[in-house]
Structures
1.
Amino acid sequence: MKLNVKLMPAFMTVLSALYFIYVLSGGDTTLSADAVGGDPGGKVLPLAMAVFMFAGFLYITLKERPDGQGMDPGTKKLFITTLLLSVLYVLLIRHIGFILLSSVLLYCLEYIYTTIDQDRDMKQAVLGGLGTMGITVLAYLIMRTITKSLMHLGRIGTLPGIFTASTFQAMISLVYVALFTFAAGRTLCRRLKAGGMKQIADPGLLTLATVLFLYVVFKQFFSVNLAPGILDF
């Protein structure tokens, strides 16, 4: 099936709008130490990003819209599937958590869009999704253990005080994400491709890297309150 419209900008426009609503519906945080100085709260950065994402993707969607062409049945099916996944993501993220739910959403979207013109093995796809989620959670837990341990050692004086700085912790996490992704690509993904399972190898690796990278950037660099959900420990 060949798509007669470019759907990804349209889907990202919808997802950005849903994310904007999600941020507005959540609680806000203000630093008590800056009550007089006027701390803008924890919603400012996510809201600003949602607005810019929505405006940018809407512009791309309108600019690249083929004149006089409608959606064929296959395109409509993809649109509805992506929309439903996005809505479920917004509704469930507070309960399930950013890491788990983002892994599922990104893997599903990557798998769907990279296998449009291919024969799909649904059993293989499900196993790939579960495996991707499991490896992403494992990588996240290892990363959290490393950063917490280094911070503890820095606080008790075993390591230099720089290890207690949030920015330095975030840099360590970025290096870890890069190394873990590289190792997964050179080992597990290579074996999957050799076994004829490229359909799940590429989406899985991209999901792993993207989810962990977004977590480090938003949570550790910008202190955005990403819902821990089930992994709240």
2.
Amino acid sequence: CDGGAGALVALGARLLDADGHEIDPIGSNLARVQRIETSGMDPRLRDVEVLVAGNMHNLLTGERGVSRVFGPQKGASPKQVEALEAGLVHWAELLAEAFPAQAAHRDLLTGPGTGASGGLGAGLAAGLGARLCSRFDVLMDADLCGVDLDAQIARADLVITAEGAVDFQTPRGKIPAEVGRRAKAAGKPVIALAGSIGRGSEAVHAAGIDAVMGIIPVPMDLPEAVSRADELVTDATERALRLILLGAAIAA
């Protein structure tokens, strides 16, 4: 959770402490930064239009901020989470001071996408005046992946998507939920295959996913699951389709 500090340093910025000494651009150091020195940044960056494709559900700070949502997942203690949160709040203030023109009228703390990639969204929005956009929409609508997803959904009777873990975070910009929303807009049923089904997984139903099927049928360690991925996904898909056939037979 460095708030995009590393990216800005890579582009020529320097992070200075109260004594004018340079500080490494890592999350735990943000609270010590007193000034962002921007004179080393290439002036041509001002004339570049930057589009950042990220998760718009990720915010820089607050209850849904990156430190509180992702910190515990990465092993941060409650005390470390609060320290990271305070550092990011301070960092947003420094960004607004260092880049007043780009940061003007931008909500760096809780604006959509500001917390993408550990706060990279906020750093680039302020430092480069970047426009933050949904990564999924950018990829699909720009046709960068070579797949016309909407056309394929329109031709399908059933949409099957997948994710390593389906839980309360899945509706917050994860690919299966975005697929589900597009499929639901087209009136298509959706099944998600999941390596694990975690807390709050029922939230995906409101995102357009009708049912979730676990891929792992029995307890196994990660290396085994990875080595058997093709087999496990195939078996889970067959189980899901057999349930559909059973439902159709009951309804007939």
3.
Amino acid sequence: MGIAQACQLTNIKINMPTNSKGHTGIALDQGSTTAVTDVTIVGGAVGIRNWNQQVNFKSISFSKCTTRIFLTGGFVAVIQNATFDTCGLGIDGGSGGPPGSIIILDSTSMDSGPVIKYHDSSNDSGDRNNQIVIENLSHDGGNPIAVDSNGDTKLGSDQTVAPTSFSTVRPSGPSSTARSARATTAPPRSVERTASRIKRG
């Protein structure tokens, strides 16, 4: 299922085989979908695949998905009030193209795998387009909250600080020059780090 630019999808349920190796519930391949809200996704290899410029995923419930959200590109993805129940990987932001800013708000992960996999761009040169913010996450189980694209744990299940959000800046501020729709920055001279609290379930 796809969603057109400047449109939204709300109040539906998608059922797929729970042992699927190839089903995808919603595929947002390009454009600017405004919002996907009040959606329940059961089963499937991928619940939502996103390559939109910006989109708000609000009140999405995932159950028995192998990967809940696969981010293959884009600028900003806001995941708000999501529930991950008995799933594999939560948000895959480390296997496709640069996923832009990933913001996870007021969400719950129960009996599931890592909440997020991401590419740590803090040591990359040139342009970068990958920041992460986690706020008010309820998480249970022994699986880590965040792993990098190599599978190494960056935020364990027993920690109370969110994954660090990295961005490269000039001492005088970011450049206003844009290339390929991404902000151009100087080579790494300083790194801003921000962290949000995680509420343990």
